[in-house]
Specification:
The protein is an alpha+beta fold. The protein contains three helices and eleven strands. Strand 5, helix 1 and strand 6 form a beta-alpha-beta unit.
Length: 161
């Protein structure tokens, strides 16, 4: 599995904004991120959010991003995968197979908790109809089990634990 992009954001744009306009917090692309067991990604909006939070980090598939761009006529050079508000964009794995499983990514132990279900904001953030299209392809929410650093563009196999 290859990490193509890593994003963190200091604040929420959609979470807690029901029936309000989205926030304007940037998704900041970083080369590496510090993963803290039980807390999340240092510098991210969900860091230390609540005990045993299921979405301490979120993953999204590079392949799904490309399929979505093709399906909606979106140019990949104009709309980055950060619009999906997921932290880690990976290539080379079907994320749905990791739900309910422990695995390692670049030496960091993770537990796939559930699909990162798309919300209706995807229609605003990406394209009209994206919310329904992304159902079953929204990515993966995971808990961080061990401290470590994830780095962009490092190719490595994930290891089931």
């Amino acid at each position: 599995m290859r990490i193509r992009h890593i994003y963190i954001s200091p604040g929420h744009n959609f979470y807690g904004h029901h029936e309000k306009p989205p926030g304007e917090n940037p998704e900041v692309e970083v080369e590496e991120v510090n993963c803290v067991a039980g807390k999340g990604l240092a510098g991210d909006r969900f860091f230390g959010f609540k005990e045993d939070y299921k979405g301490q980090l979120t993953l999204f598939s590079w392949e799904v991003y490309q399929e979505a761009c093709a399906a909606f006529g979106i140019e990949t050079n104009k709309t980055p995968p950060s619009v999906f508000r997921r932290n880690i964009i990976v290539e080379g794995v079907d994320l749905s197979t990791l739900i309910g499983k422990e695995f390692e990514l670049q030496g960091v132990a993770l537990s796939g908790s559930e699909e990162a279900s798309p919300c209706y904001w995807m229609n605003t953030a990406f394209a009209e109809g994206a919310h329904d299209w992304l159902k079953g392809r929204g990515g993966l929410r995971a808990r961080i089990l061990t401290d470590g650093i994830l780095r962009r563009d490092k190719v490595g196999e994930y290891t089931p634990v």
